[in-house]
Structure formats: C-alpha cells, structure tokens
Amino acid sequence: xxxxxxxxxxxxxxxxxxxxxxxxxxxxxxxxxxxxxxxxxxxxxxxxxxxxxxxxxxxxxxxxxxxxxxxxxxxxxxxxxxxxxxxxxxxxxxxxxxxxxxxxxxxxxxxxxxxxxxxxxxxxxxxxxxxxxxxxxxxxxxxxxxxxxxxxxxxxxxxxxxxxxxxxxxxxxxxxxxxxxxxxxx
Length: 186
Fold this sequence. Notes:
The chain is α/β, with parallel strands linked by helices. It folds into two domains: 3-74, no CATH class; 81-145, no CATH class. Helix content is 27%, strand content 15%. The chain is built from six helices and eight strands, in the order H-E-H-H-H-E-E-E-E-E-E-H-H-E. The chain has a four-stranded antiparallel beta sheet, with no helix packed on it. A two-stranded parallel ribbon has the order 1-2. It is flat, with a radius of gyration of 20 Å.
C-alpha cells in the first residue's frame, strides 16, 4: 500500500496497513511524556520543533504527518487575498509592534515571544460591514490574479508530476481558528 492509498483508507475510516500521525496541532507530546514516553534524545532536540516531531514519528513508527499545515506536499496555490494589502508598520516600541498585515487587519503583536507562539491582538479588520464586501471582493479576491498560482510552465510541471503520484497533495488553507486566508507555519 502506498502513501496515497494508505491516506485514503485512513480518512475513510478503513484500516490501513500503517497509521499516520494526523496533524499534531495541540501537541500531545508533553502528555505522552507524563504517561511514560521517554523524552526525545538530544540529537532530536537539537533540531527544535522539527526534531521533536521527527522523534514522535520515529518512536511510534508513523510513516509521516498528514496535515494541510505541515508534513505533506502542499500545492503552491494561494488561497488568501490576491492581491493582498501592503504590509505597513503603524507603531513600534520595545514591547510591541502594530502593523497592517496582508489580509488588511491591524495587528498588535508583542515583541517578547515565548517559544514558537506569538501573542497577537487584532485591532481592526478590512471589512466593517456588508457595504464593504463588493469592493473588497473585487480588489482582493481575484481568482485569476497572477500571484495565486505558479507561472504557467511551473504549474504544468506540477500538474504532470501529480498525475501518477503515490503521495498525498494538499492545499494549505490556513488554520483551524483563523480564516481560510490566515497562514502561519512554524
């Protein structure tokens, strides 16, 4: 059974010959340690979060991670705003930065980070009501915008390579808690 067949059996609630690790979003690693799993050896820890993920895969014998966020082959398709808003710093001091992101949101982000997570506060959004929708849609959600897909020759190469693949291909659609266009991959 190849990776693609295994994934389809897994996602359709059938029994594959091996079980993938399904998107380790909430990080059960700490709970597994408390329940008796040996902590990752130093050679894994030296690689940071990627090393810890590799350790979990190796420890449990998982083939890989199936997720639209990491661990699989993602198609280089932008599902976000095309064209996006220009990034613009509006305020900055020792404790935080306030900026307009590519989605048009005004974001306050703390500069003192704890681990891989960033504390953000959304101060304003690009849409303020239904009256804003037509102009917003027409300006920023152009399905034919050149930045949405790779150049024609590269896209043709990708499509051809995917025709007889034995692996999973995903499109990164953002996060569980954000919207389709909010992307943050660590």
